[in-house]
Amino acid sequence: MTRDEKKALIERLHAIWNSGRLEWIPDVYASDFVAHFPKGWNETDSRDGHAGIRTAIERLRVAFPDWHEHIQDIVIDGDKVAVRYHSTGTNTGMFGGRPPTGRRISVDELSLFRISNGRVAEQWCLVDDLAFGKQLRGEMLIS
């Protein structure tokens, strides 16, 4: 894949999370996709493969129907793509077994993707979990 094709693939991945267009998953994610997400979320369901990533997107978009990931930086090196992005959403549905708060969250995220055969094969993701949790609880953030 060219650099432009890799960039377009990652932009399409974020478009899935932004729109909920789950039918695009096979065009973006490898069927044997492996997710490496923060351990603090205590999620018992796998996010691996098409079924796992579908469940993760559905769960997030039920909790935050207006979820949006805005790409700030993309760095491409070989089969790896690093992305810095900012995510926002309003918690109007159940999340992590908790009722909706109605609060809007705004968090920074970093992901490293490995691309193989034109699809995303692996993702390592880091979320500002502290800011995420504080905002859901209605606590003030220190700037």
Model description:
A 5-stranded mixed sheet has the order 1-5-4-3-2. With 143 residues, the chain is α+β, with helices and mostly antiparallel strands. 31% of the residues lie in helices and 36% in strands. It has one domain: Nuclear Transport Factor 2, Chain: A (Roll), CATH 3.10.450.50. It is globular. It is built from 4 helices and 5 strands. The model has no long low-confidence stretch (mean pLDDT 92).
Keywords:
4 helices, single chain, Nuclear Transport Factor 2, Chain: A, alpha+beta, 143 residues
Task: Record the SSE blueprint.
Elements: H1 3-19, H2 25-28, E1 29-36, H3 49-63, E2 68-77, E3 80-90, E4 104-116, E5 119-127, H4 129-137
Parallel strand pairs: 1-5
Antiparallel strand pairs: 2-3, 3-4, 4-5
Mean pLDDT: 92
Number of alpha- plus pi-helical segments:
4
Overall geometry: globular
Distance between the termini: 40 Å
Please describe the biggest sheet, giving its number of strands, its sense, and whether it closes into a barrel: 5 strands, mixed
CATH topology description? Nuclear Transport Factor 2, Chain: A
Number of strands: 5
Strand content: 35-45%
The level-1 CATH class: Alpha Beta
Low-confidence stretches: none
What would you report as the Rg, rounded to the nearest angstrom?
A: 15 Å
Please give the share of residues in helix.
25-40%
> How many domains make up the 3D coordinates?
1
Output the structural class. alpha+beta
Order of helices and strands: HHEHEEEEH
Order of the strands making up the biggest sheet: 1-5-4-3-2
Assign the CATH architecture. Roll
